[in-house]
Amino acid sequence: MTPARPPLPGLPVNLALQGGGAHGAFTWGVLDALLADGRIRPVAISGTSAGAMNAVALAQGLLDGGADSARESLHRLWKAVADSVPALVGALPTQGLNGSTSAWLSMAMDWTRYLGPANFNPLDLNPLRKVVEAQFDFERLRREQPLRLFIAATEANTGRMRLFTEAELSADVLLASGCLPTLFHPVVIDGVAYWDGGYSANPAVFPLLATSRACDTLLVLLNPLHHEQTPHTGAEIQARLTSMSVQSCFVREMQLLAQAQVRAQRRWWPGDRLDRQLARSRFHLLDGGAALGALAVESKMVVQRDFLLTLFEQGRQLATGWLKRHGAALGQQATVDLARVFTTCGADAPVPVLPAPGSPS
């Protein structure tokens, strides 16, 4: 029997980690700063694609030895990612962080829209498989379960979200969560084909509230919530549609959660467990969209080490600044108003509230 691990210090929190390919290195920086600060103790994480990779790396580190081990586990993961991709792809220039990528990469990504993985990647080569199999002890993670995990994937034939938990962790689960359908064959698990979880949840937040007793939930976002310019050219429109396709489900879920929380807080009777949890939940937002929104969509495929380290430093700076401004609020009050950020009503307009079950609409 495995001896019980002593609880880590810090405020118990939930983490919701978005996906975004190589942009997940930004989240690596955020997590590194949060873990180094020591004020929080992750107890449940929901992650999609690169967010799922970061979640499992963090869990592996906590299992191995605590916050410092979690930081080292994240560092090993992203170093392995940079080392795993063929030199030709890994060395493609990003021209700093001005959003431009090489013409070769842009052309290659255009080809995938027409050829599909059967032609573009007939052998279904995925360098991430070796990475995750080398980095993570899935059997031990399933057995000892250092925290709650929710890994989102999308059923390729229904579009439905599938949430895998810590008890189901495997290399296939992580690869399914990040399976880009234009590059890789679907990942088949128990006879079901899966694509990237971003198409159905990026990430799923509701399970954190439904299963965790932590009242603080940190949302770490990589996709912009607001764009300054309306797209006009075909390439700009396509890029915006791609961004929207992996953002819309998350935004809709947050809109519903905002409405449900307002309703729960206005009730004069306690309600059920979920209502009570919603009423006392405190949300916090670390938004990387402003820094990453200027980057070309293709930059999510660039794993050049210098580029990843630049994203890491940006994420770390964001989290460090956030902790200076809002760290004292952790465990005390929310630092983001979900209703104002995610609903379509104006800042001073009343938030639309869902009617209680059984009440007249």
Shape: globular
What distance separates the N and C termini? 54 Å
What is the overall number of helices? Answer: 15
Which band does the percent of strand residues land in? 5-15%
State mean pLDDT (0 to 100 scale): 84
Q: What summary fits the major beta sheet? A: 8 strands, mixed
**Could you give the count of β-strands?**
8
Kindly name the structural category. alpha/beta
Helix content: 40-55%
Order of helices and strands: EHEHHHHHHEEHEEHEHHHEHHH
Uncertain segments = 87-105, 345-361
Instruction: Please give the radius of gyration in angstroms.
Output: 20 Å
What does this structure look like?
This protein is of the alpha/beta class and 361 residues long. The chain contains 15 helices and 8 strands. Strands 1, 2, 3, 4, 5, 6, 7 and 8 form an 8-stranded mixed beta sheet that branches. Helix 1 packs parallel to helix 2, helix 1 (24-37) crosses helix 14 (305-326) and helix 6 (127-135) crosses helix 8 (171-177). The chain is globular.
Write the layout of secondary structure elements.
Blueprint: E1 11-17, H1 24-37, E2 40-48, H2 50-64, H3 67-84, H4 87-90, H5 103-120, H6 127-135, H7 138-144, E3 148-155, E4 161-165, H8 171-177, E5 187-189, E6 192-196, H9 206-211, E7 216-221, H10 234-245, H11 248-266, H12 273-280, E8 282-287, H13 289-292, H14 305-326, H15 338-342
Parallel strand pairs: 1-2, 1-7, 2-3, 7-8
Antiparallel strand pairs: 3-4, 3-6, 5-6
Can you describe this structure in just a few lines?
By secondary structure, the protein is of the alpha/beta class. Helix content is 47%, strand content 14%.
